[in-house]
């Protein structure tokens, strides 16, 4: 394990899934460090899924869109499925208005729905498994 935490973005492991997020404050250099660190962790820990929560992201530009697309492709080559969760409506509108496409990027309305898509289920107080995207 490397001692550096280059992007300053926490990456948590839940079983075979890595969970992380993006913030507005992430500059281009930090974003590249984040991508490097995340891909290293996917390979080293044999992660099969990655959830990237972008619910705190207020704006998106072409660099971030391209970075998410490239990260998804790289992760897929390493055997992991990536889901980007929590996209705010203004971010989605900006992507459409600018003609930016997130090729191959799967999305989920929120982190819970993203985790359910990756095979994670929450349990109720009785210990019964329920799908994370169920309304019940």
TrEMBL record:
PROSITE patterns: STAS
Database matches in CDD domains: STAS_RsbR_RsbS_like
Domain (STAS) ranges: 7-118
Lineage: superkingdom: Bacteria
UniProt-listed PANTHER family: RSBT ANTAGONIST PROTEIN RSBS, RSBT ANTAGONIST PROTEIN RSBS-RELATED
Protein name as it appears in the record: Anti-anti-sigma factor
């Amino acid at each position: 394990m490397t001692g550096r935490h280059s992007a300053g973005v926490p990456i948590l492991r839940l079983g075979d899934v890595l969970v992380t997020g993006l913030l507005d404050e992430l500059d281009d250099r930090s974003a590249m460090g984040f991508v490097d660190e995340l891909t290293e962790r996917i390979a080293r820990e044999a992660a099969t899924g990655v959830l990237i929560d972008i619910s705190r992201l207020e704006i998106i530009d072409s660099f971030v869109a391209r970075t998410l697309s490239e990260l998804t492709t790289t992760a897929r080559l390493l055997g992991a499925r990536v889901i980007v969760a929590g996209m705010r409506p203004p971010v989605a509108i900006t992507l459409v208005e600018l003609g930016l496409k997130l090729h191959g990027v799967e999305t989920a309305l929120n982190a819970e729905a993203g985790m359910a898509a990756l095979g994670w289920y929450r349990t109720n107080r009785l210990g019964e498994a329920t799908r994370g995207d169920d309304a019940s």
